[in-house]
Specification:
Layout: E1 2-5, E2 15-21, E3 28-29, E4 34-39, E5 44-48, E6 53-58, E7 65-67, E8 71-75, H1 83-86, E9 90-98, E10 104-114, H2 116-124, H3 141-155, H4 172-187, E11 190-198, H5 208-222, E12 228-231, E13 236-239, E14 245-247, E15 249-251, E16 254-256, E17 259-260, H6 268-284, E18 297-300, E19 320-324, E20 328-334, E21 337-351, H7 357-372
Parallel strand pairs: 14-18, 18-19
Antiparallel strand pairs: 1-8, 2-4, 2-7, 3-6, 4-5, 6-8, 9-10, 11-21, 12-13, 14-17, 15-16, 19-21, 20-21
């Protein structure tokens, strides 16, 4: 039996949920035929078959959670090692991985035999594979989870919460947020700074989100290190030529962060079209994995709901995030006289391990100066 294992669906999460099987045992399938819909942290992904033949076995039913790299479907034919579909199990000195937000993570050391999915899980849970005890030939996901639970039990007192009503499991989207926030807390040294941009001189109706994207572009061009990835373990960083802005989108399903690629080389009209498309796709959970990858800096426009200032949280390996509060009219000093002006609160957070205080304030200054212009 040829076994197809669940591949990495492009978001870096170590698991996905079976939402609908399109085939059943006994069905004939063709290469690239869609066989199952999997729910990841951010989207529904249709998975195609790499094999042609008669379906012999489905490894899971609707609603089951499948670990990346675990068997998904078996097709009649010459026996194939499940690991060959997503990569042979091997020891490696350097591996490239992805985090829950869809951004590429720099290399890490791996001295034991483990699948890419298990290594990914270990990084997300903050587990050093050198410290994992395992009894089998290879380190498994269960081994990593046990190590993570042991570490937490030795360092963090249990909450011992007594629930009085029925409990609900977190959705994949919220689980992704838990893992991303934990990773940020473990690996980032954040510092936040806030100020107000004077936007009173804007002429006519302006597209605020596009203006914010152009302001972030100006900030990254002025302070290139704000548009970088950083690996604190290896003490290396990478500057990006393209400015890929992840745009936080709030929905009833949870937070989604689709990525506007290479904003400096997109027209205002193209950016607006992508923004509208992303918002609709986030609402109906039809974002593609490619739209969730490779962000180099994040825009959180929380002020569209409420709030003036914040300390936005960075998702590694990125080193900067820009938060925008609610615009308002207020009395300020203007040309030496009190005046009512339209202002826009800005809060930025940088990873102070890489970005200096001077670079942080110059980033903020460049964003404010761009927003103060009457027009784009």
């Amino acid at each position: 039996m040829k076994i197809f294992c669940l591949p990495d669906l492009g978001e870096g999460l170590p698991e996905a949920i079976i939402r609908e099987w399109y085939v059943q045992p006994g069905d004939e399938v063709q290469i690239d035929q869609t066989i199952v819909a999997m729910e990841t942290a951010k989207a529904l992904v249709d998975v195609p078959s790499p094999f042609a033949g008669k379906v012999e076995k489905l490894f899971g039913k609707t609603g089951d959670t499948v670990i990346t790299g675990s068997p998904l479907i078996g097709v009649e034919g010459e026996e194939t090692d499940a690991g060959t579909v997503v990569g042979n199990i091997e020891a490696s000195d350097r591996i490239l991985e992805e985090c829950a937000t869809g951004v590429s993570v720099t290399a890490q050391q791996a001295s034991h035999r483990a699948t890419p999915a298990v290594r990914m899980l270990a990084q997300q849970l903050g587990v050093d594979l050198d410290e994992v005890k395992y009894s089998g030939k290879n380190i498994t996901a269960d081994d990593v989870k046990k190590a993570a639970n042991l570490f937490q039990s030795n360092t963090i007192p249990p909450l011992n919460v007594q629930f009085t009503d029925a409990v609900e499991s977190l959705t994949p989207t919220r689980r992704a947020m838990v893992m991303s926030m934990t990773q940020s807390h473990q690996h980032i040294v954040p510092v936040s700074i806030s100020d107000d941009a004077d936007i009173h001189d804007w002429i006519g109706k302006q597209d605020t989100t596009v203006r914010l994207l152009r302001a972030i572009q100006a900030g990254c061009e002025t302070v290139p290190i704000a548009n970088a990835y950083f690996d604190g373990q290896q003490m290396v960083y990478q500057l990006h030529k393209k400015i890929n802005v992840g745009m936080a989108v709030d929905t009833p399903h949870g937070l989604f962060v689709p990525v506007l690629k290479d904003v400096a080389h997109q027209s205002n009209e193209a950016l607006r079209e992508s923004i509208n498309r992303f918002k609709q796709q986030a609402r109906d959970k039809s974002l593609s994995p490619q739209d969730l990858k490779d962000a180099t800096i994040i825009l959180s426009n929380f002020g569209t709901i409420a709030g003036r200032y914040a300390n936005p949280i960075i998702i590694p390996p990125m080193v900067a995030i820009v938060g925008i509060g609610s615009a308002r009219n207020t009395v300020v000093a203007h040309n030496g006289e009190p005046a009512v002006r339209r202002i826009l609160p800005i809060s930025i957070t940088v990873d102070h391990r890489l970005v200096t205080g001077g670079e942080a304030v110059r980033l903020l200054q460049a964003i404010m100066e761009e927003l103060a212009k009457p027009m784009l």
